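Our collaborator T.R. sent over the components below with a one-line note: 'Predict the complex.' Nothing else. No constraints on interfaces, no templates requested, no preferences about which chain binds where. So this is a plain run: every listed entity goes in together, and whatever single assembly comes back becomes the starting point for the next discussion.
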Amino acid sequence: MSDCVLALEGIDKRFADVQALRRASLNVRRGTLHAVLGENGAGKTTLMRIAFGMVPADAGAVLLEGVPVTLTSGADAIRRGLGMVHQHFTLVPAMTAAENIALGGHGRLDMRAVAARVQELGERTGLRVDPSARIATLGVGAQQRVEILKALYSDARILILDEPTAVLTPPETEELFAWLRRFVAAGGTAVLVTHKLHEALSIADDVTVLRRGQCVLTAAATQLDVPALVSAVTGDDAGGPQTAPDRRTPQRGARVARLDAVSAQDARGVVRVREASLECFAGEIVGLAGVEGSGVHELLRVLAGRLVPSRGVATLPPLIGFVPEDRLRDAVIEEFTLTENLALRGAGARRGRMPWSAMAVQTAGLMQRHDVRAPSPVSRAGTLSGGNQQKFVVGRELDEHPALVVAENPVRGLDIRATAHVLHELAGSAAAGSAVVFYSADIDELLPLADRMLVVFAGHVREVAVERAAVANALVGAA
Amino acid sequence: MAGRTDARWVITAATVVVIILAVLGILMAGGYDTPRALAALWNGAFGSSYALFSATLVRATPLLFVGLAVGIAFRAGVLNIGAEGQLLAGAAAAVAVGLAMGGFPRVIALPLALGAGAMAGGAWAGIAGWLNLRFGVLEVISTLMLNFVAAYLVSWLVRGPLQEPTRVYPQTVELAPSVHLPTLIDGHRMHLGLVLAVVLAVGAWWFLTHTAAGFRVRAVGAGRDAARSAGGINLGRTTALVFLASGALAGLGGASEAMGVTFALYEGISPGYGYSAIAVALLARLHPLVIVLSALLFGALEAGAAAMQREANVPSVLASVVEALIVLGVLSFDHARARRRHA
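Returned assembly:
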């Protein structure tokens, strides 16, 4: 393995009572793009944090260019030519791109020199960013370019990207992948952590699959196909569960919700939705797509009855199930028990005493029906895994058979099993007569499920064919 | 769940132990007669029926009112550190009404004077609440500033409209017996205010755990966005309610002190009960029933510290040092724990 530029060998890591990694290994060849796959909790991120010196391993070795090293911190890793782009960006919103890139430097700060170098780096690599733009004003894709430039600015030769496409639109993803191919072609090395199988197959040279802290597969991407990866990721020889439910025969019932020339503003008073009109009918799944900043999030909140339109008329049913994107912020309270989180629903209008014992029974039933794995109804929501939290939220919002269900990126960050579960629940809800509005940042999640597709662009809503090309074009405002 | 809850109380106990060791260190480093000082501390707090019923429990009463005021506010994420001002407003209003009601029978005069104190405290906190909800003024700043306003308002009252007729002393005349809170044991100073405070503590606990409105208060404190989005809870209305309730509790504390202990209004009527309240509430982890114990502990500490000053010459400000250490200890332990959990 003389061309092995980054190697992790026999890594063990234990957090309290969880064995996160068990003799995990990873060999990344120079000038290649190496995909690391696995379900949530498989240990992908932990392994990468060990490679980047952010957490120490309990046992095992990290080798750079074949030489064992002891990385003591991220700063140490950066000095040795590693760079990491985290899933959640580590940028200061109030500062400019150049200022963010200069963070972590030493000695005298010459902002003009930094800006000039960022400009030069951007032109050389094709990662175009205005060095003087404030981060808060940049889109998600541009913020990610700043993150990558930050790594390249400190001369990173090995780039680790943790779920980089989770927040990107399809065109942005394609742009990132094209750039990554150029980066490795020019002698760079990249490690791409992802849970999207087709992504790994289409772009990576090598693929490593982690399952429950162990490496279960390492092979060249050309020798693999989707079924092989599914069984490696889930440990299921039967080929794994289907991600998408079978397509239903759409049965359009009565109209349950209607927006008539509705405009809406975000929290800062900026108009995001402009005179949008749409209707939802019982029994159908309406796919909704839109890039960040298109107004799609505000439109979803208007539909969910969580945002009052500044203009126009929204006619909504009395009972609406809402699955928001940021579940730890908008859907559950971590330090509350599951029963208390169930009690949240309708808490604003409740009077008198809290019927706690009835609610505990109701919670236990919900956990059983929706496969929420937790010790008991008095377990705190924060102690559950993300997938179980989401199953709980979906169960809570769907259990009373609301006439309208609004789901915002409901499977983001979930593993294959939890994703399949949530998508089946949404399909089941439509089959039972609810109107379901389903938004996802990933077109490939929407297309198999949607009966109709609506695309939001610059605050306007447009209906398009349920086809990849049509949606992708409408997302960026192309005809 | 049990394990997590236990860990919190273990940390609280550890905080208390560390603070006791720190106090011993201070006493020894200061060259005081440590055994004698500790004996005085104990005797001053619990050593006799006088110490318990006329010192410790009398001190604990206002601390319990204001501790509950701070506790319920913090539970809702409202950082009311103005219990001192609200207590002064309550004391002033209770005395003003009490002076006017001197001729009325006790069954009318007592509730009216207490009610005036609660309303004045609520109104005083309501100013900060309105500023917060209408203009986004941070309540940490407004409630603190209103403490000074309230203190100077009391100064003006006892030198102006409410001053005793001879105009010699900056204080009011003494309240008529019909507006005195009755004592609970003959010959001791402990008064009805303590019973009222304990009843309110149980009521606050029941409100938070068993009523829909109390659940809304907890939900807003634990997760504003989820409370609004998943629960459809009106944040403004819940927050306003909390400001008023918190202020009313502190105002009642002021009324109880004026009607049960001082029987008059003067400038130094509160030795900073409203500030000690923060330590009382934090040490009890904002749990209303535990606040009863925590107020008792602080009442004992203040009574004991006074005795320690008399008998062993140890400055009684040591009690304030301990309070400050408790706030710092609880907050830093919690912070460390939160960081570990998110690492």
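Summary for T.R.: The longest strand of chain A covers residues 4-15.
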